[in-house]
Amino acid sequence: MALNTSADAPLPVGQVSRLIGGWIDRLGSVWVEGQITQISRRPGAGVVFLTLRDPSHDISVGVTCFRQVFDPIADVVAEGARVVVHAKPEWYAPRGQLSLRATAIKPVGIGELLARLEQLKKVLAGEGLFALDRKRPLPFLPHRIGLVTGRASAAERDVLENARRRWPAVRFEVRNVAVQGVSAVAQVVQAVKELDELPDVDVIIVARGGGSVEDLLPFSDEQLVRTVFGCRTPVVSAIGHEPDSPLLDLVADVRASTPTDAAKKVVPDVGEELNRVQLLRDRALRTVRGLMDREERGLAHALARPVMERPHRMVEDREAEVEALVARSRRTLGHLLDRADSELSHTRARVVALSPAATLERGYAVLQRGDGGVVRSPDEVTAGDELRARVAEGEFTVRVAE
């Protein structure tokens, strides 16, 4: 759209900016490719700010989007990543600044691949395939170790040599497979299943040397991850090097940083075990000697007691106690008998003093009728009655004269 302007009738800068904004508004949404040079995510803010740069023309433009748009790719993109953005161009007239409001962001190349892996990782984690409580411990000394690796590879050599160096008698069941390419997943899955079915295989190692993200893709395949999850035999993942982290590392029972580390985790070192056995023997010997020394000291202390030096002393002490108790009992019983005899003598004296016999001793007599009744009054007898007179020395018969 042409404008009628001249040196005498120029347009203000603000009007030119507004006209540019109108032209840009009519442009509509477009797909834009560029490199992220800056990411700004403020905690709690609902909007993310990006700077998108075109390296070939050294041009940058600001991009804003909601967190719902950026969060799905937040773990796979960083500054320097290439992305494709579906955005609506916007012109900020007061500053004369162009920006893009994004409604969709997609990684390009490796970023897109990582995004798909991240999505698969979330799905499998939601199903519990990576749960820590389902991971099984490795056997202390496996009878036979299953090894899945590339033929004549450095990973195979590292595992075999380091394992046999640590424990020369260790035995392996090796399955050589393709570790990259279109047939890698099928061959690795088949090898893992075969080793899992062997009853004498106690642990399975899946090993491969380092490589690019594309080279390690077979070890993040969903089929392989589910196969390892269903194994009854513990599985050790030794894929790549320390920075590499395929999904097989998450589902395996043990993750080794390198193939050499896998050999160290699975096979104990015979030298270390012999040293540990010797340390345990020394510890047991010290414990037994300490126990014996303690018991000897206790026995010596017990033998030093007087009762052990003179065993009969206890009997003698108890004999003296018994004799003292017997003497005390006799004294007590004698006192009781003496007191009872004294009480009996006093009682006898009182009885004798109150007895009729004592009265008779003083010259008195008791008169009794023929029926035995005692005569207490002259009115109880008549002249001519015969009475029995009882005196202290005996009795005689008397007759009443009047």
Plain-language structure description:
With 402 residues, this protein is an alpha/beta fold. Helix content is 42%, strand content 22%. The chain has 12 helices and 13 strands. It has helices at 13-25, 67-70, 110-126, 154-166, 184-197, 222-229, 247-251, 259-266, 270-303, 306-309, 312-354, 356-361, and strands at 30-41, 47-54, 59-66, 82-92, 97-107, 145-149, 172-176, 203-208, 235-239, 254-255, 366-368, 386-391, 394-399. The strands form 3 sheets. It has a 5-stranded mixed barrel with strand order 1-2-3-5-4. Strands 7-6-8-9-10 form a 5-stranded parallel beta sheet, with helices on both faces. A 3-stranded antiparallel beta sheet has the order 11-12-13, with no helix packed on it. Helix 6 links the parallel strand 8 (203-208) and strand 9 (235-239). The longest helix has 43 residues, at 312-354. The chain is elongated and about 200 Å long.
